[in-house]
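pasting for ref. prot 1 ->
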Amino acid sequence: MVCFVTGASGFIGANLVHELAARGHEVRALLRKGSDRNGLEGARYEKVEGDVSDRDRLKQEMRGCNWCFHVAASYHLWLRDYAPMYAANVQGTRNVIEAAAAAGCNRIVYTSTVGCIGLPVAKDGRVTPTDETALVSAAQMTNHYKLSKWQAEQVASELARQGLPVIIVNPSAPIGPRDVKPTPTGQVIVDYLNHKMPAYLDTGLNWVHVRDVVAGHILAAQKGQIGQRYILGNADGNWTMKEAFAVLQEITGIPAPTMRIPYFIALAAAHVDETFSRFTRKPPKAPLAGVRMAKYKMFFNPAKAIRELGIPQTPPRQALADAVEWFRQNGYVKA
């Protein structure tokens, strides 16, 4: 297949380019001018310089492509001005999908997030993971990133209802190699490796190997039903931070933090941090958006993607080990 990939320099995007090329597909990678392309090193692809705002250019470059993977997104938990993020995530999604359809792509895979799926509710001390049928509530829209991605997913769903060949995938918390930036989840691992994690919040994630997330994208193009969405996660990956740190301790030999920070203290500290950011104009180390998301255990059920797509299920422990190895080999760990 001839594949067009937006967001090709990002964590998921770069791994997707590598995997598509390894499987013999031809890849056209959309890259913004000046983007960090270290994650693409060694991959075979055709560079397309541009961004998601130029619909005509997108349509031109997509001609002859069979599949389009719209992975690009503006991901920030704090900005002085959020308008560019909405433009990239919402209008950019419309531009990419409409351009891909006009260019003749027969499958368009849109990368959303589990932040667009209803959060699980704890009952009697137990948290039951939610699936694609769980609707989000207004209370869940705790930050501009999640709201912009939710609006973007509504655009993708609307265009699918109009007959465009759109499939939506919702990755949970991917970890693994080529996390160049790194992502917020990857930064947790980097901080742990650098002994900068003295305490933890009582939160949780669905940890999944980025390799499985990438395979899920390709499987969605091959087998996904138009208009449907699929959680790309791991059935055994619903771990609290305490559980994840215990595994990291086994892998690395670095002692896991034992002190749990009460939520109200973390929230108060984030308020102070963001107040200073208004004056310094530098991003806060602990943005309110991140702390508010950490109030919930973000546990999800990927059974639909396992059943209908056949997404691989690499053990989460292996995903953490692969992430640790990559960060160590690429200079993220200080001696």
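and prot 2 ->
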Amino acid sequence: MPSFVITEKCDGCKGGDKTACMYICPNDLMVLEPNDMKAYNQEPDQCWECFSCVKICPTQAIEVRGYSDFVPLGSSVMPMLGTEDVMWTCKFRNGTIKRFKFPIRTTPEGQANAYADLKGNDLEGGLLSTEEADGMALRGPAADQRA
């Protein structure tokens, strides 16, 4: 289910040129309605359901229904972005609320470990470079199983 804006909660990021959800949407779907000063998803069919707009919204006015493998149908999912983690609140149809906290990357932009000294043998190999470094070998079919 694509993102949708709860208009009662949306304040248009207090009248700026660009709202937080407009800034963060990787598909440029969020727009600001100039008369009401409320954001909305202009093309719900194109929404990737990445939760970026939901996480960044300062008034928690945007929701995306969770996938059924994450929460049961009819449940709502609301992330709350902190400085070091994201708190996910799942509200189930029966009213039960569960919260899960996951850390977020706190590495400054451009300073993530690039593993400069770790090189794979080639791009066509069947192993990841970390698997090669650990000495793993690609297993093939046993000789006695061939027809």
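Strands lie at 4-5, 30-33, 38-41, 62-63, 76-81, 85-91, 97-103.
Residues 37 and 47 are 21 Å apart (CA to CA).
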